[in-house]
Every structure is written in structure tokens, then in C-alpha cells.
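Methods — Computational structure assignment.
A single polypeptide chain was analysed. Its primary sequence is given first, followed by the predicted tertiary structure written as C-alpha cells.
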Amino acid sequence: MGRSKALWAAVASAGLAVFTGCLPYHQGAMPGEPEGSYVVLRAEPPQVPARTTGDPESLVRGLNVARVRYEVRGQGPAILLLHGFASALDAWDVLAPELAERHTVVRLDLMGFGWSDRPEGDYSPFAQARLCFALLDQLGISDVAVVGHSWGASVAMAMALEAPERVRRLALYDAWAYEEQLPTFFWWARAEGLGEAMFWLYYKERTEDRMAMAFHDPDLLTQPLVDAIHAALERPGTVRAALEAARAQRYEDWAVRYPEITQPTLLLWGAQDVISPPWVGERLLRELPNARLEVYGQCGHFPMLEARHASTRALREFMAPPGAAATRTLAPVPGSATPHAGSGVLATGVVTP
């Protein structure tokens, strides 16, 4: 047994030495960077670690400084849109204009993704949450409703736990929220050396197949979308940031705190989602004390696209001030003749205090 451990340690050390140089971080502008708004954000760790059942160091590590791409549009009560893992603010291109008719809509590329920096630092949902608050501070926004998709939903919940007085309500699309959701690839990647080797060798492989799993309707996986994904993977620092974000998903440390999230919460789910299956939404419905769940048929991991009519209507009504009329005919998705509607609400559930 001692010899096996020594051998494993040697392999891990060799892998770390070989592959760390192949997985650099990156800060600053990148080739092909689009015009837009960029800001350097500084997010300090809290003085007192958040309560957890695990190691508080998983929530409080160190200082993050990152140059971040963001966009602001519209006027009214503020809404912050948070994209998922390996995605970017462009994931909200269809929804953002709809919400901006009644709200100030803020969206950003989270640290490590899109056109934002990939620095050495803390990539946990709580660290990302602190960067989001730093952006809101820059914009003079004191409180916000937060909409998160997939891994971005864990950042949204971290914001609600970190500063509940600043988060009015939450809307979570197909949330990534529990340890049981982590693929084996992410578990193995926690090992120093092995994670570097795995991500360097395999992270860019079969991206089209993995993306196909996200959609119930295969027609939504267009060649321009595939090309954009491949291009994003080639940006400097991308693989390293993905590895660090995967390692920082320690849901066992903070999932126990979900019942502390008392803000009104709308859960929107695709019935055919194989990435974040409906049981995750059902579990959140039980654990969040003021939640409502809507499940959409013929819909995968992106309800804002595959169940666009029904999910956007539900979100607009959820976000609307009391007495405001929030429903209307939706405009077509850019590049298509008609909006993609899905089949509407398959089931709903409500839990109230």
C-alpha cells in the first residue's frame, strides 16, 4: 500500500509539473476581443467565514482581481443575469431585451469565461458572487433580482447567502446546485496533477457531442454556435479557468444552507434536461422556503430558448412590480422566422412559508 501511494504521488507530481505549464492563466485583453464595457473589479474575501458543515476555506480563500466584460441596458428595478459553466453573457441575448423593457438589466462574463480575465484566484460560486457585488457597486446598484442559469444559479444562490439584504428575488434556470450532479470528470480533476492532465488532454474534445446533450431540439445546435464554442475554447487561459472552476464546486460545504434563502424564488426547468435533471428542481423546491417550480415539456437545459414563450412569460410576471401587466407577444429570436415556443408548462409546484 505504501509503495502504491508513493507511486501515485510521483505520477501526480509529474503530471503537475508537465501540464501546469500547458495550462496558463491569462489577464488582459485577448485577440479578437469585441467592443463593449470592461472594468477591473477587486473582490475582497469576507472577514468572517460563511457558516458551513465543511471546510470554511472552501468559501473564503483570497483576493480576486479581474477585468470583466459586462453590459447594462434598460431602466427600472435592476436584474442581474448570470450565465452557466463554459458560457458567457451572450447566453442571454434573447431574454435580455425582453426584460430591459421594464428593468435595468445587467449581465457579465463571469471570471474565467467569455471575454473576462482568467487570473489565478478563487473560482468558487461565493468568490464569483463577490465579484458580482463589486460590479453592482461600480454601477451604483444597491439591490437586485438575480437570474442564474445552470452553474450561474449556484452563483445566484451564493449572492443570496452572502448578502441577503441586496438580493430581492431569485430565478434559477436548470440549476447546478448539488454534489450529486458533478460528473466523474470533475471529481477526478480535484487531484493535483491529474486534473491538469485530464483538462489539457480532454476538455476541448467532443464539445459538439456534449453541447448536443443540452438541447431537446437538435436543430438549436447550429453550426455557428458550434464554431463559436470552438473559438471560445481557444482563448488564452480558458482551460485553466475551467479546471479551477470545476475544482471549486464544493457543494457539500454550502448546500446545507439553502433553507436560509428566503427570497421569493422561481425555478424554471426543462423536463428533458439530462445535464441538470428535474429531480434537482424538485429538491430545491423542498429546500427553498419560498420557491415555485415550473417544468416545461419538450425542453432540455435551456428553457429560455426551447420553452421561450412560457418561461419568459413566467419570468416577466415574477419580476413585474405589483399590478403591472407583464405579458405580451414575444418578438422572434434573432436569425429565425418565428419564436421557439416549446410546449408550454408541463407541471408546476409551489411551496410557501
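Note: Residues 2-20 form the longest helix (19 residues).
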